[in-house]
Amino acid sequence: MIKKELQKERNTNDLYILTEPLDTTNKIVIDIEEVADYCFCPQYYRFKHNNTDTINMKTLYDKAIHRTFYSYLISFQEGKLKNTLGFLKYQWGKEWIKSKSKSNLLVTPSSLKRDSYDEKRRLGIKAIFNFDEIMSSEKQIPIVINHKYEIEILPNIILRGTWEYIREVTLETGGKVIQIVKILSESNRFYTSHARQNDITLVADAYAFMKLFNPTYFQVVNIDVSNKKSFISTYTEKDFDKLKQTIQSVVTCIQNDINCWTPDIKCYNCEFRNDCNRLFQ
Ligand code: SF4
After folding, report:
1. What CATH number is given to the structural domain containing 89?
2. Probe ligand 1: pick from 261, 265, 271, 275, max atoms within 8 Å of CB?
3. How many independent structural domains does the chain possess?
4. CA–CA separation, 1 and 213 (whole Å)
5. Can you count the helices (H) and strands (E) in the chain?
6. One digit per residue, pLDDT tens: the chain, 281 residues?
7. Ligand 1 within 6 A of 235 CB?
8. Residues 50, 54, 55, 59: is their CA dihedral positive or negative?
9. Disulfide engineering: 45 pairs with which of 8, 38, 261, 275, CB 3.0-4.6 Å?
10. Cα of 143 from ligand 1 centre, angstroms
């Protein structure tokens, strides 16, 4: 039933195909990515969501490699995927090499080698090899790819988010399970198992899926492409309550322009470190 509903209008590009868009009159609309970024650092949130002039290599890379993955999954879903690695190489070349001239102009300069254009190109090649290996090793049926959802999470707040990939997987036991998948393209030492289990974007994806489709059972899976590993997370009502409280708090802080941030170890992994004067105050 869920599968049918989800697949129904797969081929349209409408962002809200799975549910009717909600009436947002007199409501606050916030995306879960904004909430997560604000929790990471309010200054980071401002750079990413308020300062559209600041585009950096990490953001560009993330978008390009995810678009490559989505093209692969869509082609797979449509039954057109043949030479899987060849397809990925072509897509990655198209996404990264072709956009080079434009990106060179837009990208924030960074002195770090890991942020160089060629370093990201190589990282992307490694990522597509790993992604192909991971996807080829699992028996799966794609259901939806890169689809937005929205849900009234609190009486005055509408939460938006994106399901990157929902699939039906055949387990070794022969059983089938629906999985909500998040693809992590680049390893990050701050994304520990604890951080993964408490990743607010995953909790939101699970909550929205549960509320909109009322499934009897499903799993939330995080695929770490760089390490070729998958992790299954489970969430309880307590996690969903924390999610709602966090969203309410972030909305209150943003509305009241409350910005309390301190430079700490996370700054060394922050793509805005070159623009952020907080590091030097
Ligand atoms: S460098 Fe640190 S304080 Fe500045 S935006 Fe990044 S995480 Fe926040």
Report:
1. 3.90.320
2. 261
3. 1
4. 9
5. 10, 6
6. 445 555 544 443 444 445 667 777 888 999 999 999 999 899 889 888 886 666 677 888 889 999 999 999 999 999 998 889 999 999 999 988 776 555 554 455 555 555 677 888 889 999 999 999 999 998 999 999 999 899 999 999 999 999 999 999 988 888 899 999 999 987 776 677 777 778 999 999 999 999 988 888 899 999 999 889 889 988 999 999 999 999 999 999 999 988 777 778 888 878 888 778 765 54
7. no
8. negative
9. 38
10. 37
- Sign of the CA dihedral with 146 first, then 148, 153, and 159 last: positive
Helix (H) or strand (E) holding 70: helix 57-77
* Closest ligand 1 atom number to CA of residue 273: 1
Structural domain for 239, as ranges: 2-278
